[in-house]
Amino acid sequence: MTTQDDKKRAAAQAAMQFVKADTIVGVGTGSTVNYFIDALAEKQDLIKGAVSSSEASTQRLKNHGIEVFDLNEVGSFDIYVDGADEITEHKHMIKGGGAALTREKIVAAVAKTFICIIDDTKQVPILGKFPLPIEVIPLARSYVAREIVKLGGDPMYRQGVVTDNGNVIIDVFNLDILNPPELETTINQIVGVVCNGIFAHRGADIVITGTDNGAQISQ
Ligand code: 5RP
């Protein structure tokens, strides 16, 4: 039987074919990306190093001996490899289940190509069943939650979580996200919101899905 972890691993290993020699690789966050980091470690002599989207990924990269560059020190780079919590056929995503959404969105913005690695449970017709994470300045938590209610969502404070940027996370339940780019913009305009987990304006370019029949690539 192919488990969800087998599928994540298959997608992560398939992403290695897009890693070019002597380049810096953008690295996301999460359990699927951890398989990618482990695969990258086996070919680490091939690459210059990585830019990372979280303290957790930075630590894992460094534990493998992979050099991690500050994003401000590198110009553009070719690929950013990251997972997703949900993804549609339009390659719009919800991300941030691991609370790393802001840095993920920044690193993704700089990369030329966003490669999303998922198992097939992440494919959805409409975004929103997975609660939408929003990173918020702590002082603005209640205000942002009230504004989200006006948009029709049910906000819930993610207890005990502080992001790598020192902020908090609100998860929004019960949204049917019919127009992801529009809602991404609307939520960004609420004062106190640092970033929301809709990745639509900068969606994925390539999606690698782990399935019962191995990794399938869509570009
Ligand atoms: C972290 C993320 C992850 O990419 C997303 O949560 C998927 O994680 P996993 O690969 O563990 O299922 O956005 O902020």
From TrEMBL:
Protein name: Ribose-5-phosphate isomerase A
GO molecular function, one term: ribose-5-phosphate isomerase activity
Purpose of the protein: Catalyzes the reversible conversion of ribose-5-phosphate to ribulose 5-phosphate.
Broadest EC class assigned to this enzyme: isomerase
InterPro entries per UniProt: NagB/RpiA_transferase-like, Ribose5P_isomerase_typA_subgr, Ribose5P_isomerase_type_A
Family per similarity comment: Belongs to the ribose 5-phosphate isomerase family.
Annotated Pfam families: Rib_5-P_isom_A (PF06026)
Binding site for substrate: T29, G30, S31, T32, D82, G83, A84, D85, K95, G96, G97, G98, K122
Pathway(s) where this gene product acts: Carbohydrate degradation; pentose phosphate pathway; D-ribose 5-phosphate from D-ribulose 5-phosphate (non-oxidative stage): step 1/1
NCBIfam families to which the protein is assigned, alphabetical: PRK00702.1, rpiA
Subunit field text: Homodimer.
EC numbers on record: 5.3.1.6
Keywords noted in UniProt: Isomerase
Active site: E104 (proton acceptor)
Enzymatic reactions: aldehydo-D-ribose 5-phosphate = D-ribulose 5-phosphate
